[in-house]
Amino acid sequence: MSRSLEIVNFHGIITASAKMKSLFETLKRVSRTDSSVLLRGDSGTGKELFAQAIHNLSRRRAKPYRALNCATLSEQLMSSELFGHVKGAFTGATHQHDGLFHVVNEGSIFLDEIAEIPLNLQAKLLRVFQERAFNRVGSTKVEHVNVRFISATHTSLRNMVADGTFREDLMYRLRVIPLFLPKLSDRNEDIQVLTEKFIEEFNQLGYRTIEQVSKDAWDAMMSYPWPGNIRELRNNIEHAFAIGLGDTLHLEDLTPELQGKQPPEETALENIEKELLVKALRDNHGNKGKAAEQLGMSRPTFWRKCKLHNVY
Ligand SMILES: Nc1ncnc2c1ncn2[C@@H]1O[C@H](COP(=O)(O)OP(=O)(O)OP(=O)(O)O)[C@@H](O)[C@H]1O
């Protein structure tokens, strides 16, 4: 089906898009350095794959690489995950814990949803840049670390700096090399390429073989805006494999959104919840920490509800 497209597989990132291919060339050059990279792109556009590729292409490839999603943890847990803690540092700290900065020494760290880092922790992160030093929670002993920073955000850090929710000095440290990942809807050729790739992947599981995609299914996929990008496309193919029968992927096998329908489980109450999440995010310029606060929810609960309602 996609014979005429020139498909590239770059460290697991599959594409036929010229925009993506030119990003790979930049990535190869950038990866040779230790400069910090800020990946800017919507949810599901492949930021984590890019981060891993940067590490794999770098001189640090034999050293550790770790990723942390800054939107899913409370401030205390995030602090302990990043810097570690000593026994007795807080209630429940029954053992000493090595944080990621201890573990990734000489390697790379990927901080996803960096915009969600609370201001207190932003100051500590800045110290890692400036002094290559940090303290475990509850300890006065200074530890040193040599780490390459890769971070990602779907919102503008510049807007957050203007709002006073993100430190300008930290933003400049993090975005020495900003890279912008295109949305799936801005690279239509990849809808076809990735659909075929995911079909191939699921065919290999052996419980069903899809050999073709019906015209109305293709039409729907090509005109859908894909707010969840590649992750949502993959979910759709998985959905179709589970729901449909035979060797053809039909429009009815895709998720209700692709068919222009409301997902059946979305009751009126759930719709209200979804609207509240969207509004709180809009009021807070996409900052999930602040949006959670406005709704009186913990950050992890807010994150879980956003995922549940496909709010990106
Ligand atoms: N070009 C691609 N080729 C193959 N698989 C891809 C591609 N882009 C993304 N994926 C797959 O899509 C899913 C989402 O990608 P990834 O987690 O890297 O996105 P993300 O931008 O980091 O998302 P989020 O911001 O929600 O964390 C993963 O399963 C990933 O393997």
Automatic annotation (TrEMBL):
InterPro entries to which the protein is assigned, alphabetical? AAA+_ATPase, AAA_lid_NorR, Homeodomain-like_sf, HTH_Fis, P-loop_NTPase, Sigma_54_int, Sigma_54_int_dom_ATP-bd_1, Sigma_54_int_dom_CS
Q: Which GO terms describe its biological process?
A: regulation of DNA-templated transcription
Domain of life of the source: Bacteria
Q: Which residues form a coiled coil?
A: none
Q: What is an example of a Pfam family matching this protein?
A: Sigma54_activat
Presence of the UniProt keyword Transcription in the record: yes
Annotated Sigma-54 factor interaction domain ranges read: 13-242
| Molecular function terms from GO | ATP binding; sequence-specific DNA binding
The alphabetical list of record keywords is:
ATP-binding, Nucleotide-binding, Transcription, Transcription regulation
Q: Give the matching PANTHER family.
A: TRANSCRIPTIONAL REGULATORY PROTEIN
Q: What is this protein called?
A: Two-component system, NtrC family, response regulator AtoC
Q: Which organism is it from?
A: Pseudobacteriovorax antillogorgiicola
